[in-house]
Amino acid sequence: MEKYIKRQAEELILARLEAGFIVGLLGARQTGKTTLIKHLSGYFQNKGVLAEHIFSFNLDDVLLRNEIAADFYFIRNLIEQKLGRNLGNLSSPIILFIDEAQKAPDVFELVKIIHDDFGDKVKIILSGSASLEIQRKSAESLAGRISYVYLFPLSIGEILKDRFSLDKENGLFAGLAKGPVSLDSLQKIQAKIGGDFNRRREFELIFKTIILGGTLPAVWQKPKEKELVIKSLVETYLDKDIRSVKEVGDVEDFGRLVNTLAYETGKLLNIASLSRDLGIAVNTVKKYLSVLNASFVLNKLSPLLRRPRKRFVKSQKVYFFDVGLVNFLTKRLFWENLRGETAGFLFENLVIKSFEADNKNKPLPYDISFWRDYQGHEVDLVIEKEEAKIPVEITTSETLAKEKMRNLAYFFREFGQEENFGFVVYRGELKEIRIGKNKVFLLPWWLWW
Fold first, then answer.
1. Which H, E and C letters describe 250-273, residue by residue?
2. Cβ neighbours, 10 Å, residue 201
């Protein structure tokens, strides 16, 4: 049996079910939704829920969809038949999982009825890889009843917590929510997972593994099979998911766009240039980008524009949900293929997505962006926490380059309060420096969680 890696989403799902919500578990294919659902099934059984009271329906099954289309109450009737009683006569809880829920639209109305009538006993989790469709159907039928939990590939924190048995430990992101960050607090986190020479060597091995192969759970656990896992993901996505999306008229054009965007990871997005190079209309490129975003394959990071009188770059950047997918599409299969700027963009992608995996599930997520002016000064990530704008520079270097110092200095000059702070995520040692009155924490990448 494949080892289960504890996911941050697990506790969120349980808390929201306990609060009386239907949970919508959303994420791209291969991010571990099915594995998480199987784990939760075991969890509920350990908590006393009878195995025969846990029901799972996968609407990828066309025969099941046909049954639902023919009989609106098919799922409820089947549950009651197996229980031998009406849901209104329940004496113990029921857990209902419905995967790829968007493929049978009527199921949302049925779920609403079950939740409204029996929500104190029936706990419901809907999941799927088409977030736009699930959210659209939910808005129509489940408004005020559903809470979304987003599942990403493994974050840096999830990987390190699993590797070094740190499940109960809090890291930088939890500290950031509580108040000001200090060198002392970071040193305490570091002391729990770092220290000796061999541990540092292991960090370097993990770094190379995830930059090359990505952090999809199946790839992380079986890195030798990464090409097969990602090949299956790409083929399933293009041949199964996308062919059913009405917004995509030409799957071949869509596939060419995906491959081209893989080379643009972390770069400014130029839709007009993509349209011209691929021979695809601008509006079609925009529509396909929306589909990619809705299916979690990529997302766009917008620039920080807080001073309209200033001339700042206004183009967005594009990042994929997993760097292993990027390397597969660009045929970078060995560490030697990742040089200089390429490795930098991949690392930037990984760091930003690891933060997003935590941030997206917050009740009030921070706004995130990047900043760049026309003089070429740039900050890779800006986290807006209340009134503060926290700059984050990201580099694969083991030292802090003067260029990064200069970028931060310009940022603080433009946006800094009386005293602000920022981060540099890199491969060097934990340090604190000053740029003017502003603290900058030089953060080893393995503390970015």
1. CHHHHHHHHHHHHCCCCCECCHHH
2. 10
The pLDDT value given to residue 333: 86
How is residue 27 annotated by DSSP? -
Render 178-206 in DSSP notation, one character per residue. HS---HHHHHHHHHHH--SHHHHHHHHHH
Q: Which residue has the tokens 């968007």?
A: 102
Token pair 């994420």 is found at: 27
* pLDDT on residue 375: 87
Per-residue confidence (pLDDT) for residue 314, from 0 to 100 = 77
Residue 372's Cβ-count burial label (10 Å; 0-12, 13-18, 19+) is buried
* Residue 255 pLDDT: 92
Query: SS3 for 437?
Result: coil
For helices 33-46 and 8-18, what crossing angle results, to 10°? 60
| 9 touches 151 (CB < 8 A) | yes
Q: At what angle do helices 131-141 and 106-118 cross, to 10 degrees?
A: 50
| Prediction pTM value | 0.91
Packing angle of the helix pair 282-294, 251-262 (nearest 10 deg)? 80
Chunked in runs of 10, what are the mean pLDDT values of the chain (449 residues)? 86 96 94 94 95 94 95 96 93 93 91 95 89 79 94 96 84 87 91 75 93 95 89 84 77 93 95 96 93 89 73 80 95 87 95 96 94 91 91 96 95 80 96 94 96
- Indicate the pairing of strand 421-426 with strand 438-444: parallel
**Domains by residue range for the chain, with CATH:** 8-151 (3.40.50.300), 157-447 (no CATH)
Cα separation, 157 vs 353, in Å, equals 12
Positive/negative CA dihedral, 29, 32, 33, 37: positive
> Which residues, in sequence order, are CB contacts of 338 under 8 Å at separation 6+?
211, 212, 327, 332, 346
What does the alpha-carbon distance between residue 349 and residue 300 come to, in Å, rounded to a whole number?
11
User: What sign has the CA pseudo-torsion 113, 116, 118, 120?
Assistant: positive
Instruction: State the amino acid at position 191 in one-letter form.
Output: A
Non-local CB neighbours of 370 within 8 Å, separated by 6+ positions:
301, 302, 303, 304, 317, 378, 379, 380, 381, 382
Find tokens 């930088």 and name the residue.
172
